[in-house]
Design a protein that fits this description.
The structure is a homotetramer of 361-residue chains. By secondary structure, chain A is an alpha+beta fold. Chain A contains 8 helices and 18 strands. Helices cover 27% and strands 23% of the residues of chain A. In chain A, helix 3 (131-149) crosses helix 8 and helix 6 packs antiparallel against helix 8 (335-358).
Chain lengths: 361, 361, 361, 361
């Protein structure tokens, strides 16, 4: 109810502040018997962690996690799984000067009004550090869905500022191409342009936004998603919009489909060697809120991060005008680190709907 | 869990099929003592009902509702409110030929796979007729929020196909201008262009999509929304994406903000005659998932409706190729009738978060 | 959240007041394809309805239900099921004199304080008439559980005032013996004593309480119930305690087990022809909150109904002392009509846990 | 959904196994600004911890907790609170011989059937050690309710085996009298008898059950609890029945009220110096599921603990008959250590309903 939980059957609750004791997640409703190691989870986290390349923040956090419950002899037990990372490189003093003011487009002001006061170290609970908990939980969901349904989750950077990756059929996107460069764009030429732009912007002390494309593919059962409010794409939308800095979501052709005629947009059914499939997939694998077995793809818009090195004007708690030039270490563009977060949120949504689906099979 | 409910404290559950006995809603958690009449609810429903203008479906449904519980002496009682509309103009025979086939981009196939069989009359539960239940519930939420917080909800058609309404500052949009034409676009010249386009497309037996812009304004408390998963815009996204035919959602500048630099996009705080406000509002009234007191605005992308008069190829239940030319009566463009639905969903989201907010005040 | 819903996956929401338009239930999450008729549901309701015998209230309500959604060609469709009974014999004028006062041990006072005012006709939402909705939903749960798991639900009157039915092994209780008399006690001699006592008390204008015993038997899967808070017996307790007039619940030996030693109370496991079972069943079929495959049995304590014909002293809304001698038609003892309610609530709890169980199989 | 969470607005999720890494709780929805120290929480835990007296298990666990999130400068922040106790005195080897068999009336068998395998160290998740998490969360609820509503929670041992404490009016029960002896019974003479009985039983290698009485008193608002399913006493019942070893619950007079006539049991309203109150309180402070402002009292039945030193017969995983004589260190009677658990669960239920109540004020 206080909004720190996600999912109905596979339910995660995240906790922790960027500069408090720790950040982590409880997973309740995880099926028993999933074989997974801390290393497998760590591998996903390493794709999200700060300091991994020249275009991410240089803040150093190992993001080293431990599984503290619900785990026995290398397997999940069916009871709640606690995964926790202690905070290490937490220089609270960096934030002392921020204590009395409200950074533009940050959550400082809204938190303080909501709760009466705020944990001013880092961004407290609003910090993107919270997302490591989602990635950890997603690693378990991914493992299960890969093994049981052969479903895989990919995401890549499709746009940075004005630079757009050429359209690629989701079925030909390869994970190796994505992970082959530090921006995580499968088209290597576009990737380099993006990297160049980010470096330029970093040098200006500014930040830039972009778009991530997500793909869910494999043997997706027909029937995931509920008809009315819990449509599969409505839950994907909520999951993605809950990621810090996200401002837009679209499924299938999304906003572009508004320009088409129904006769162009509709996906006719065909008999594909005895299997019912659609001739094309403008719908993005979901019809009436329910998966139709085709590939699911969607796009997520990220704003330019609010924290910049450039001088900004704002007010302090006494409502006085002040000038702000933050000293913290930040990302000029969150996109490359957001790729595993988008994958994780997608896997959490699908995992929950797979269990809901199983309850009625 | 089966996805027919929405909201945590102000919780609605909708029920009913387009050609079954009735369609309606239960509202659980409605505050007691709200004075409202069936006529006030009906007025909202009349903006959604079919047959209201030349550019909507000519199917005739009165959509006449009754309040059957939770209501006494003109006021809500605090107990569950049942609102119900019986189905009248339900020509099931129109659908007999559809019984054995799967219409392109409809939910026929996914429902049948999910449930093992389907109610083939109309679109059953997937029918947009379900949304009248949302509008009815929204009418109560709107009344409460207007009276208690002076919050109002507006929506208008911003795009139809390639035609786009000029940008209007949300604070100057007037309800009279929106309701002044049958497409519900506040710019009268654009409105006429949109109407012309829709009529042309209807004559071709085709359909077209578009974008609706939603606005929430008035004395919005600072503090609505929960920090992590239940961000105010994440719940708005889920609510909007759950409306039939919606394929995209964006808050504030949305996808457009990805092209900006942080220094351009950030909204500096200012002292506005003793009140903290933002100098501009690129964020769309929400920061860190929590309302900051500024106007909230967002956009929702609707696909061209799947039902068209043009001939289409698809398969039947025996997986044989068939030709489909539907005889039913349908909207060439759902946008004008979707305006009150978008308003209703927005009011349901805000209503729920207002009660959640009150619990901690 | 407002407490009108029960269950997680098989979720019912009841609505309606005793003297409003109707009383009914929405079932969300019902599996598709259950064949059931209105008559089968009606049969269960007839066991609950007023006026069925000389020892129940003579208020005449047919309690005739209709299924208005989620039902097609004789089967549940998987979408929300609306079942509704219109109120007929609602003499609101009977209650006019009660409008200004608070009946002892009724919900008049607490409702008015909670909601600011109350629907004073009958007992409004607090009326036991609400339970017909539970019985209707339970009829569907029972049908499903009988067909899919061969589970059956029985309940009988075990005590009325000081009169107690001799202990009967749950496996030998027969439904015919229970339904053979108007008090619903399987021991015919005890039944007559109970009936005599109730008639005597009715003549005195008073009321009496008692205890109902509930039994769940058949091929109960090992594994229903969740380990910590949603223990199977904790959910049974909540369900039973939510029935009007219930003041106590016990599982297995219940309060009696507190007098035993662990060595007496423990149920040793045995090999029963290759199947693991317990040698005896003091635990009532549940261990660690999870069904062990043995019969489940429990007892539910009902208070003497608050509405009596005898004169009583109380206060009115002006806090003045007043004398009350109610004219309405009431039950001297709710036990016989509560038997199907206890069965229904038990079936709703088991149904929900069966679906939760299925989600992980 | 997997049953490790309790509460709607004040929602706790417990985690951890008796012999895993740790045991703890996440509290989501805790109001911000509650001043509390780890020491205050520890004080409650010390009343629950093993080894505190001669009649409890001699297992030594410090149960030392840390608050790891949601806490800043001595106050709760409104974000999720993680409280965690690492396991210290965890001799897993004690349990090696139990690995292959099913202890009578333990959860070994049901867990193994439900999850496919089990964490055989201690009782895993079924261990009463889980309840320390409830007591920790309850300490925060108690603090808030004391400060904001002057509500206090007491519990005491009312029965051990056949020994019963004389009836005491809930308003005269004093915490000092309860805590004055190791069994936690406010009547010192009865307390000594209970202690003598438990020592005798311990020497026999057996165990014994009993009954705890709970009291909620202070300025309880009229209006806590929801009318239908979430009646205040239904949620209390669920909370209490979810405590390990609990087999029965009753509110007010409970099972005893079934012997009374309505005219005896009913609580007439009176004008008590301008305030509406009841002349007596057979209802236990709740009418129609909603608090009426009077004291709330209830009783909870605990079975004799399953773990005994006496030899028992049971079966192993190969379904062979085996003899079991456990070597672990256990409580001959859980009642004295269960007193703070009953108080904690009561405070968690009331806390949740207080927030739900606030949402509509």
């Amino acid at each position: 109810m206080a909004g720190n939980s996600f999912g109905q059957l596979f339910r995660i609750t995240t906790f922790g502040e960027s500069h408090g004791g720790c950040v982590g997640v409880i997973i309740d409703g995880c099926p028993p018997g999933i074989e997974i190691t801390e290393e497998e989870i760590q591998k996903e986290l390493d794709r999200r962690k700060p300091g991994q390349s020249s275009i991410t923040t240089q803040r150093k956090e190992e993001d080293k996690i431990s599984i503290l419950s619900g785990y026995f002899e290398g397997k999940t037990t069916g009871t709640p799984i606690l995964i926790l990372a202690y905070n290490k490189d937490a220089r609270s003093e960096d934030y002392l000067e921020l204590k009395e003011l409200y950074r533009p487009s940050h959550a400082d002001y809204t938190y303080e009004m909501k709760y009466g006061f705020r944990d001013w170290r880092g961004s407290g609970r609003a910090s993107a550090r919270e997302t490591l908990a989602r990635v950890a939980a997603g690693a378990i969901a991914k493992k299960y869905l890969k093994q049981k349904y052969n479903i895989e989750f990919l995401a890549y950077v499709d746009e940075v500022g004005e630079i757009k990756c050429p359209d690629i059929d989701p079925k030909y996107v390869r994970i190796e191409d994505i992970e082959n460069n530090i921006i995580r764009c499968p088209d290597q030429i576009t990737a380099q342009k993006m990297i160049d732009l980010i470096e330029e912007i970093r040098n200006e002390g500014d930040s830039v936004g972009g778009v991530i494309k997500g793909i869910i593919r494999g043997d997706i059962p027909v029937g995931l998603g509920e008809p009315v409010f819990d449509k599969l794409h409505a839950d994907l939308a909520k999951g993605m919009m809950s990621i810090p800095a996200v401002k837009g979501f679209e499924i299938g052709l999304g906003f572009r489909c508004t320009k088409l005629r129904g006769s162009e947009h509709n996906d006719p059914f065909i008999n594909d060697n005895g299997k019912i499939r659609t001739a094309k997939n403008n719908s993005g694998g979901i019809q009436g809120g329910i998966s139709n077995g085709e590939m699911i793809y969607f796009r997520v818009a990220f704003k330019p991060v609010s924290t910049i090195r450039k001088e900004q004007i704002t007010v302090n708690r006494k409502k006085e005008k002040v000038t702000l030039s933050p000293a913290g270490r930040h990302d000029p563009c969150v996109l490359p680190r957001a790729v595993p977060i988008v994958e994780a949120m997608a896997s959490l949504v699908v995992m929950d709907h797979v269990l809901r689906y199983e309850a009625y099979k």
